[in-house]
Specification:
single chain
Length: 191
């Protein structure tokens, strides 16, 4: 199966869209687990499902081939795309809060938790965007480990660094983010 996946990734990289159609059923379980782990890190009141996230992942990947060499690179790409799907959801929640949606729902008991969750996602994204200006590799490590659920070894393989370096980069990214939050505590939503 690993050889088939590698072959399909090569075909997709070369522009064969049918290869992605064959690849997704083989990778579906892993992608759904990845999306599920991302959602578990959020509040339990998410309106997104892992299945919906994987479907959206497929639609976004179908826009064109990507330079992926193997399963680990594909998982790293998926982690980045899934992060953006989660971010788009959070932005939609903020837009809806301001009346941007055409359909209005009555308030529910858990709507405050959903809004706080969207605020947190947006704040994390803002911090990651700022960190990306300083150190792109640290952002990739955060995406792969936290959003992608990849191990240190898998992350190290994709980035061409050691697992020890992954651990160090992750610690430094967390320290940087914590420092930024302490400098601007008003930007962080109340839990």
């Amino acid at each position: 199966m690993a050889e088939a996946i590698t072959c399909l990734l090569g075909r997709w990289r070369e522009g064969d869209r049918a290869a992605l159609d064959e690849l997704m059923p083989l990778m579906y379980g892993q992608m759904r687990a990845l999306a599920g782990s991302m959602l578990r890190n959020e509040s339990g009141s998410h309106t997104l499902s892992a299945t919906a996230m994987v479907n959206e992942l497929y639609l976004r990947l179908a826009d064109g081939p990507a330079p992926v060499n193997d399963r680990a690179h594909f998982a790293a790409l998926a982690a980045t795309v899934l992060r953006h799907i989660l971010l788009d959801w959070a932005r939609g929640k903020k837009r809806d809060k301001r009346g941007g949606g055409a359909i209005h729902e009555t308030l529910k008991e858990n709507s405050a938790a959903l809004e706080a969750d969207a605020e947190t996602i947006l704040e994390i994204n803002r911090l990651l965007d700022r960190l990306n200006e300083v150190d792109e590799r640290k952002v990739k490590v955060v995406e792969m480990v936290f959003f992608g659920g990849m191990t240190y070894d898998e992350t190290a393989e994709v980035l061409g660094i050691s697992a020890v370096t992954v651990h160090r980069e992750l610690r430094m990214a967390k320290a940087w983010m914590r420092s930024e939050l302490e400098r601007a505590p008003e930007a962080v939503p109340a839990p």
